[in-house]
Amino acid sequence: MTDRPVHIVGGGLAGSEAAWQLARAGVPVVIHEMRPLRSTEAHVSDRLAELVCSNSFRSDDAEGNAVGLLHEELRRCGSLIMRAADRNQVPAGAALAVDREGFAAAVSEALAAEPLVEVRREEVRDLPAEDWGATIVATGPLTSEALAEAIRKVSGADSLAFFDAIAPIVHVSSVDMTKAWFQSRYDKPGPGGDEAAYLNCPMNEDEYQAFVRALLAADVTEFHEWERATPYFEGCLPIEVMAARGEETLRHGPFKPVGLTNSHAPDEKPYAVLQLRQDNALGTLFNLVGCQTKMRYGAQADVFRMVPGLQNAEFARFGGIHRNSFLNSPVVLDPELRLKAAPHLRFAGQVVGVEGYVESTAMGLLAARFALAERLGIGSEPPPSTTAIGALLAHISGGALGAEERGVFQPMNVNFGLFPPIDALPAPGRRKPGKKERRAALVARARAAFGEWLAGQAAPSAAA
Predict the structure, then answer these.
(1) What structural domains and CATH numbers belong to the chain?
(2) Can you give the pTM of this predicted structure?
(3) 268, 292, 376, 393: which could join 165 in a potential S-S bond, CB 3.0 to 4.6 Å?
């Protein structure tokens, strides 16, 4: 290798993963992180890979969920982010959730102990020039205003934006356990084997309807004039926006009562259920699932305390909303995540138009492996679109239908809809495969394709 480092702008999930992958392959890295010199609307610490929204990495089911399959692929690549998540897991049913402070500390400590990684606490206000050499811009959705403007100028296209919301967190000691109970939906065990990971607060029909009316009447954050045309991300809608789509929307979404039995009244089926998920390893903090919000703080306290079990809730953190920026990637990036107008720059993380922690991590991992292949002077083969990580890459590099022609490009979570369909048709006289069978076939194909791709990669020699 050469002593010339790869520069990484941003120490979030994508930047941290990219640094780990490169350093483990013998390439020196400089991470430029502006915190604590300059913070953002959502961060509260100076740690690398701080989680600013949910503490959940979502489903860990690799057999039936595309997110779980992406978890598996990242683990097979020796992902630092997945290692830290696994070691700081908290109960969350079938999901992989983490103690957010322990997780960020684990990532920060691992990179601090890596001799080939240097962290510089400074704000990069302009896109690095060619004399920096290979650079990965992984500033995330909260890219500073100065750098975002520089990106717009160089890319020749406006970046798009959407609003993202975060949910409140309460002290579990303030939850009334004569009304709430622990249970995972359908008693499904999670990665840690737990079958009662969630706290459940039941509502009858009158309580639910009163709660929805209060949501719709609550005082909310007002946007600036220039922000009002910015869309929400459909996968993380504020609870008030969901409620405004119809009285029953929440009850068929995050508040659905299915798969749950109230231990205090087993014969009474709840009309709706608000679930809380553990947020730290001590089990002292729980976040309100599906309750990301743009309500003002006082209104949040009033409205959420209407829920049985939360009438005396003490809030460790209120919810909020912030504006995220992302690139029109199918137009401005090539299939190796390079900026077409300045190929020495690669982009990674949510800024490229993926949504979610593991999706962001996956883009950081890919950017690092593309940069490694370039450093070695060998060809780099993108992962097949039949894999979870490859399906994401295909989406942002041209797979979004109409993105180039009409500018229609929105952030996307990994999902089986991004995978090429299974071509094989059922034999004559046999029934069409069901959803479970189709997913099993997609997963089997993905695992085989990913194994072949990984075997041919220039990879970190000590990444495991």
Answers:
(1) 6-159+327-425+443-455 (3.50.50.60), 165-323 (2.40.30.260)
(2) 0.80
(3) 292
